[in-house]
Amino acid sequence: MGKSNSKLNEDELREYKGFLKDCPSGELDKIEFQKIYKQFFPFGDPSRFAEYVFDVFDENKNGKIEFKEFICALSVTSRGKLDENMVKLPPDEDTPEKRVKKIFSLMDKNQDGKLSIDEFREGSKQDPTIVQALSLYDGLV
């Protein structure tokens, strides 16, 4: 995969070379992925989470991560430069405190200053960002 014939940019080409160094076959199986993943978390056992991450990266569900899956996952999970990822929030949600206050007031249907489990469940279903955040934990707990 020469630079002049490649559709990869320089960073992706560097990642590809690193991927091939770690995975000469061009594929990464779950056991090897867990070994690599554990290097980033030396003081705990991230096995279950690494298994979850592997399953997310393995888009075609063949039990291996090919470079294309790897680079797509990196692209999605990498943050890039801060200013490239900034989203302009509405004034009533532009701080974590304001966002929490707004969500709480929308969920607290009886306005008693507390959330019942039913209010939380129903309110969560109405906010796509909460649904997405909670779905990240689906199957982990």
Quick overview of this protein structure:
The protein is mainly alpha-helical and 141 residues long.
**CATH homologous superfamily (4th level) name of the largest domain:** EF-hand
End-to-end C-alpha gap: 42 Å
Strand order of the largest sheet: 1-2
Q: Could you give a short account of the major beta sheet?
A: 2 strands, antiparallel
Strand percentage, roughly? under 5%
CATH class value of the largest domain: Mainly Alpha
Q: What is the string of SSEs from the N terminus onward? A: HEHHEHHHH
CATH topology of the largest domain: Recoverin, domain 1
GO cellular component, one term: membrane
Organism: Racocetra fulgida
Domain EF-hand: 45-80, 95-130
Family: Belongs to the recoverin family.
Walk me through the structure.
The protein has 141 residues and is mainly α. The chain folds into two domains: 68 residues, Recoverin, domain 1; 49 residues, Recoverin, domain 1 (Orthogonal Bundle). The protein is 53% helix and 4% strand. The chain has seven helices and two strands; from the N terminus they run αβααβαααα. Strands 1-2 form a two-stranded antiparallel sheet. Helix 2 packs across helix 3. It is elongated and about 60 Å long. The mean pLDDT is 76.
